[in-house]
Amino acid sequence: MLPGIMDSNFLQTLRTHTDPEADEIASYFIQNNQLETLNRILFSLTHNGSKPEKAPENLTHFLTKTAELPQWIDYKKIRKAQELYLLYGLEISLILFCKSLPQSYCCPKGVKVLHSTGRLSNDPSFTKYSRRIMETSQFVMNVLTKGSFDKEGKAIITAQKVRLLHGSIRYYLKKHGWDNTTNGEPINQEDMLGTLISFSGLVIEGLEKMKITWTDEEKEALIHTWNVVGYILGVDPNYLPANYKEAIRLGHAIFDDQKGYSSEGQELTEALISFIHYIIPGNVFDGLAESMVYFFLGPENSSYVGLKPDDSFLHKKLPLIYKVLGKASDTLKDNSALIRGVARPFSKLMLQGILLTYNDHKEATILIPPSLQKNWELKTGWKDTFACPDVFGRRLAIQKKINTLN
Questions:
Q1: Are residues 234 and 309 in the same domain?
Q2: Looking at CB atoms within 10 Å, which of 69, 257, 264, 370 has the fewest?
Q3: Structural domain count, the chain
Q4: How far does CA 191 lie from the centroid of its chain?
Q5: How many Cα atoms within 13 Å fall on the side-chain side of residue 189?
Q6: Where is the domain boundary, 258, 293, 328?
C-alpha cells in the first residue's frame, strides 16, 4: 500500500475511480436489454457453483479472469481466519450489525448509494431491508466458511456476483442524476476500500472493544483473507493494507475523510435497529440494539446517525438480562464486560430469528453452513406454537426448540 494513500487529497482522487471491467460488462447487458439474462446467469453461478454453458463470450472471459486468485494468496492464513470465524462467528455477526454497518452510515457520501438503490427501507415489512442484510451476512459467511476459496468456491463466486452488481448500480445511478461532483463516483475505490476494512480491521477493533484479544498472527489472517476478496471485487491491489495496523489507519483515514450527519444515515440506522428488534421475539432485549450500536460507535459517531446515550440500560437493565440468562452480574464492573457477556446469546437470537422469520416465510433466505450452525448451537428447527406476526410493530411468538442438526 502506498504511504500517501492516507492523505485526504489522495483519498478524494480515489473517489473518481471505480472498476472499468465490471462497468463494461454491466453496461453491455443493460444497454442490450439483457439484464434478466445476466441475473439468471449469476443465479446459476451462485446455486450451481459452475460456469454456465451459454454465457456470452465477454462474460465468460470476465468470470474466468476474475476467478484467478492473486499470486500472493496465503491459504494457511485463510484457513486460520476461517477457524477463527468458527469460534467467534457470533461475536463477529454482532459487530457486523452493530458496528460495521452503522459506521458506514456515518459517511454521507457513501451512504447515498445504499439509500438511493432503494434496497434499504423503513417499510414495516422489512422486506427490502431484510434482503440487503441477508446478502451482507451471507457474503461474510461465504467468505469465512471452510473451502470457500477452493476452485469455484463460494467466496469467489459471491465476490464476482457482488462486483457485477456494483457495476449495474453505478450504471443506473449515473443515469438517474447522480452528482459526481459532490459525491464522487458511486461505489468508488475509496468506498470499496472502506467497506472491505469494515469487514476486517473494524471487526477486530470491535472485538478488542469487548476485550477479546487476538494474536498478531490471527489479526493478519483476517486482514489477508479480506484482501483476497478485495482483489476479486476489483479493489486496486496497490491500496490494500499490508497488515492490521495499516488496515486500521486506512479505515480511520477514510472514515475521517467522510464522517458527518445525513438524513439517509439516520434513516438506515433506524431501519437497522428496528429490524433487529423485529426478529427477536418478546421484550427482554428491548433497547439493547441501540445500546450495542452506541457502545461500538462511541458518542461522536453515534450522534451522526441520531443515537443518544442511554447509560441507564447498561447499568440497570443489562444486569436483569444476565439474571434471565442465568449469568452472575455482580462481578461485572465495566461496560465492555457487560457487552461481551451478552454478545453471544444476543447474536444467536438474531441469527435464529433471521432463520425462522425469513427462511420459513420465504421473504428472503440465508444459508448458514451446517458446520457453523452446529458450532454456534443454532436451533434451526424452532417452531412456533403460537405466533402473531405484528403487534404494535413487534413480532410475538412462543416457540419450541427442535434440534435438527446432526
A1: no
A2: 370
A3: 2
A4: 14
A5: 21
A6: 258
pLDDT tens, residue by residue, 104-149: 999 999 999 988 875 434 444 455 556 677 778 889 989 999 989 9
- In single-letter form, the type of residue at position 120 comes to L
Full domain range(s) for residue 120: 3-258
Q: How far apart are CA 10 and CA 80, in angstroms?
A: 33
CA–CA gap between residue 108 and residue 264 (Å, rounded): 7
351 and 323 within one domain: yes
Q: DSSP string covering 142-195, please?
A: HHHSTTTTSTT-HHHHHHHHHHHHHHHHHHHHHHTT--HHHH-STT-HHHHHHH
Which distant-in-sequence residues (6+ apart) come within 8 Å of 129 by Cβ? 119, 120, 121, 122, 123, 271, 272, 275
216 and 354 part of one domain: no
Domain end point (choices 258, 285, 319): 258
In the numeric block, the cell 469487548 is attached to: 210
Indicate left, alpha or beta for 167 from its phi (over 0: left) and psi (-120 to 50: alpha).
alpha
pLDDT in tens, 35-73: 888 878 777 766 655 555 577 889 989 999 999 999 999
Residue 96 has pLDDT above 90, yes or no: yes
- Contact predicate 378/401, CB 8 Å: no
Q: How many residues would you count in the chain?
A: 406
In a shared domain, residues 351 and 377? yes
Rounded-to-integer distance, Cα 287 and Cα 95, Å: 17
* Domain membership flag for residue 268: no
pTM assigned to the model: 0.85
**Residue 4: pLDDT band by 50, 70, 90 thresholds?**
low
Burial 178-191 (b: 16+ CB within 10 A, else e): beeeebbbbbbbbb
CA distance 170 to 309: 37
Taking only the tens place, the pLDDT of each residue in 168-222 is 999 989 988 899 999 999 999 999 999 999 999 999 999 999 989 999 999 999 9
Whether the CB-CB separation of 106 and 303 falls below 8 Å is answered with no
Question: Of 61, 50, 54, 62, which is closest to residue 23 (Cα–Cα)?
Answer: 62
Structure-block grid coordinates of residue 148: 470457500
Single-letter code of the amino acid located at 17:
H
